[in-house]
Amino acid sequence: MSRLKRALDALGSMRFAVYLLAATSILFMAGALCYRLKPAVFTPLNSTMLFEWLATYGIMNARHTWWFFLLIGIFFFLGVNTFLCTLVRMMALIKLRNRRSLKSLLYLLSPHIMHIAFLVIILGYLVLYTFGVNSYNNILKPGYRRPLPGSEIMIEIRNPSFATVAHKHNDFLNRLHISANYELVLHDEGKTVRKNLGLNSPCLYKGYSIHVADFNPSRVQSTTRSIWVNLTIRKNVGIPIFMAGIVLFAVGVFLYLLSAFTKSHQVL
Amino acid sequence: MKALIHNLFLFACAACIPAAIFSMLGWRRLRNVIYLVAVSLMLASTAVRIAYNWPLMCLYQEPYLISLLLLLLPIHLYVKGDISSAIASGTAAVLVSFFSLLFPGDIYVSFVKTNSIFAHLFSLFSSFARAAYFCSAAISIRILLSRTNSGAGPSTADLGRTTNLIIAGFALHTLGMFCGGIWAYCGWGTPIQWESHLLLGMAGVWFYYAWFLHLHLAGNYSRRTMLCASFAGGVLTFLFAFLPDTGVFNFQGIIQ
Fold this sequence. Notes:
The structure holds two protein chains of two kinds.
Chain A: H1 2-11, H2 14-37, H3 50-60, H4 62-95, H5 102-128, E1 133-140, E2 146-147, E3 154-164, E4 177-188, E5 191-198, E6 203-205, E7 208-216, E8 228-235, H6 238-263
Antiparallel strand pairs in A: 1-8, 2-3, 3-4, 4-5, 6-7, 7-8
Chain B: H1 2-25, H2 28-53, H3 62-79, H4 83-102, H5 117-150, H6 156-188, H7 198-218, H8 223-241
Helix pairs in contact in B: 1-2, 1-4, 2-3, 3-4, 3-5, 4-5, 5-6, 5-8, 6-7, 6-8, 7-8
């Protein structure tokens, strides 16, 4: 029992965290150098799942991807370390709750909120790159329908509208469509649902997220007059987990800075 | 318009030279006036650069934004009365500005997906973070050199100056990465876009400063070691989070 406790203490220790963070930083920087040498190996990560990529591009280009394999192992230990460290410190803080003011408690709690958020974000990334539906190059024209991948829901676009900007000095921007908006109609089991879809403004429906990857016409006087939109369709629970992690981390940072700067100007 | 953006930046860099000379001669008032002129010119260059592509984001604008923010930080330190730190960070600002001038990465053409508030916030926050890291590195090396000459070790206040800057930079770096993640999700459907090695460099720098802050909290290391780590962070930021945004050496392009 004492041996197990010693092992858990070592796994959740600050010293171990320091080593792991240093190793993570070194591996990311090594990764940046490897990426610069051979970017073509890494760009498929935009469209393939993590384990699929590791089994193909990863294994076949081990000279440039070795750091990625090590990083996954380091992240596992970093996750365990963060979880154990946060658990122990949170339990100690809960015992102190009656002896501390709310402000002081929030200050002490904020790093742990960031640590929990870090775990949630890592989990979000893992789920994002492991499960789900990722479908690319779904071209749609007004009046045509196509199914959402993995379902019987049919989608079509209506009422395309484009925004331009009048620029006196930048000719490139003149007559350029800087945003595209559509009415996305979803035909789902006899129901018709209408949603808004735009560039940088995805449409969310029953776990699916539909994104505008590209569109035509890109300019007011385009050489081709046909209207089409290229959609990226995803169904992935990793996204809400990732977003929840972001919000939680931001809350932690906000509480830390708020408590620190109202307490004194000396942060640490 | 492109020439105006470039020339305003060029004149700002040129104004830094007499400011540095006056600083060495001890002519403080003249130095301050010339420095403020340099800051104003760089502010104008940045404003015109942003307006030139608005509402799209200018690609590779970060070195110029970092130069501006680095030039602004010494004013904050000067107002607080920390003159030596202001001079150290001002020197770093001049070096970074000249590097951005000689190695331009700007192509002045953007793409429509940068028409997002998150793209602009990502650029601003990550530039602010890198400027804070450079500033902390400059202050650290100034303290290390001056304390080595005097024989006394760095004080707690010395370490506090750099650590506070690193904390501010780390918070902004984190917010910047989150804004970048939200932008990438809205635009491409995934929070990570594997398009540049800058992504990995920025992540490496983030973990480096997470390591630094944990080291600081552990409290087992001397102030001198922490200041060395702070300076090393600035060097790594330059190599992995600044260089990818710059271009090739272009001396001929200085006069436009």
